[in-house]
Specification:
single chain, 260 residues, alpha/beta, Rossmann fold, eight-stranded mixed beta sheet, two-stranded antiparallel sheet, acyltransferase activity, transferring groups other than amino-acyl groups, carboxypeptidase
């Protein structure tokens, strides 16, 4: 189906999930999702964790238990790129246990189906909406609505230790941090923060074993933001072929050089 219609479906689903999330005080179990028939065959928890000096930043997460052995299987914090892509996109389009069923759009909410090759077959995964403003994460004040990379790392570290304090059953699990795309910048720094805190005896101690990155961005020095904005807009169908060719010719000299 056309990508624009597909995006509309996802937006509608997000709006429904947002309505549900407003009922969450700290965390709750989700047993049903719009578009999926019957009980979810995996355990999904959603919730908020307050971070920052006054907990002015509220980070939203999705936690999915391993379908094999949650008590003994590894625990992973997975961060989606962007920056600004919700953890829901990683769940539905990358490594999660559920995905959107590709079919002709009929104007209703999209149907969901199980993804057999999900990583949650062997791993407990926390999908985090990071940075603030991503997905359902929000800021209580204007001052904390814009963040640097280092602040993202700080908030993610705070989130992790608070989440584990609230879920002590997972403190002994082997722990990994995963991410993709822009989180190639965030994940290594976060791993270092966790390691330093462990060495300094900051509790709860985290059983850190390693990290994993997919198509990571590691350097911003040679990235032309105008080029990527134009490429993204054209690829998403937001600008026409004619406008793209005009921009390539008249505005951004690098577009022609970088285009595959």
């Amino acid at each position: 189906m056309p990508y624009s219609n597909h995006s509309s479906c996802i937006l509608l689903l997000l709006l429904v999930l947002q309505t549900c999330s407003q009922l969450v005080v700290s965390h709750s179990l989700v047993k049903f999702l719009p578009g999926f028939h019957g009980h979810l065959p995996f355990e999904l928890e959603t919730g908020y964790v307050g971070v920052g000096d006054s907990e002015d930043v509220q980070l939203f997460y999705y936690f999915i238990k391993s379908e094999r052995n949650p008590k003994n299987d590894p625990l992973m914090l997975f961060l989606t790129g962007g920056p600004g892509c919700s953890g829901l996109s990683s769940i539905m389009f990358e490594i999660g246990p559920i995905s959107v069923k590709y079919e002709v759009y009929n104007g209703s909410l999209p149907n969901l189906e199980i993804r057999p090759q999900t990583w949650t077959k062997v791993c407990n995964i926390i999908f985090l909406d990071l940075p603030v403003g991503t997905g359902f994460s929000y800021a209580k004040t204007q001052d904390v609505s814009q963040l640097s990379d280092s602040q993202q790392v700080y908030h993610a570290h705070q989130f992790l230790r608070k989440w584990l304090s609230d879920h002590p059953d997972f403190l002994s699990n082997q722990f990994y941090i995963g991410g993709e795309s822009y989180c190639g910048i965030i994940v290594p720094a976060l791993v270092q923060e966790v390691s330093n805190a462990n060495e300094n005896g900051i509790e709860p101690l985290i059983n850190l074993k390693g990290y994993i990155l997919g198509n990571p961005k590691t350097d911003t020095s040679d990235q032309d933001p105008d080029y990527y904005t134009i490429q993204f807009s054209h690829g998403m169908g937001l600008i026409s072929d004619e406008l793209y060719e005009s921009l390539k010719k008249n505005c951004i000299g690098r577009v022609s050089k970088h285009r595959p």
